[in-house]
Write a structure and sequence with these properties.
This protein is mostly helical. It is 70% helix and 10% strand. It has two domains: 2-97; 102-149, no CATH class. The strands form two sheets. Strands 1-2 form a two-stranded antiparallel sheet. A two-stranded antiparallel sheet has the order 3-4. Residues 34-67 are annotated as: Disordered.
């Protein structure tokens, strides 16, 4: 989602850059045209006003471009931060996945009977190997006459 926003913002920034370039060309053309018109009409004041108007429009476009650039930079920073967080989460997941479960269960499950855990009432459920395969199932472990969920 951030990459899509970044692409969109980059496209908007490119459009703004193109608009600024076009406005600068237009400003120059307007200034030349206004100067020619002023010479013909003999009014230098109109020429200066037209040129100033074109310059103001160009400044406005440059401000819009700066705003878009800031937005693109902020989106890039968010994307980089999210990438770093994702890498940290991947590292954490790899660390969790590397923990061996079966030896731990065998060590703390002395009431195993015929390869199965037993509840205090004697009812067996699930083989130790099945419960310890690391698939995230809920397990019941015997503990001093009671049981505990892991």
């Amino acid at each position: 989602e951030l990459q899509a926003e970044l692409a969109q913002a980059t496209a908007a920034a490119d459009e703004a850059r193109a608009e600024v370039s076009a406005l600068r060309r237009s400003e120059a053309q307007s200034a030349v045209a206004a100067a020619a018109a002023a010479e013909e009409a003999g009014t230098h004041r109109e020429s200066a006003a037209a040129a100033e108007e074109a310059r103001e429009h160009a400044r406005s476009s440059e401000r819009a471009l700066a705003t878009e650039r800031a937005r693109v930079d902020a989106l890039r920073a968010d994307l980089e931060r999210n990438d770093r967080e994702l890498e940290l989460l991947r590292a954490e997941l790899a660390e969790v996945d590397s923990v061996p479960c079966l030896p731990l269960l065998r060590r703390f499950a002395p009431m195993r009977g015929r390869g199965a855990f037993s509840r205090p009432g004697g009812a067996a459920f699930g083989a130790a190997e099945t419960l310890a395969d690391g698939d995230g199932e809920m397990m019941m472990m015997p503990l001093r006459g009671g049981s505990v969920e892991l």
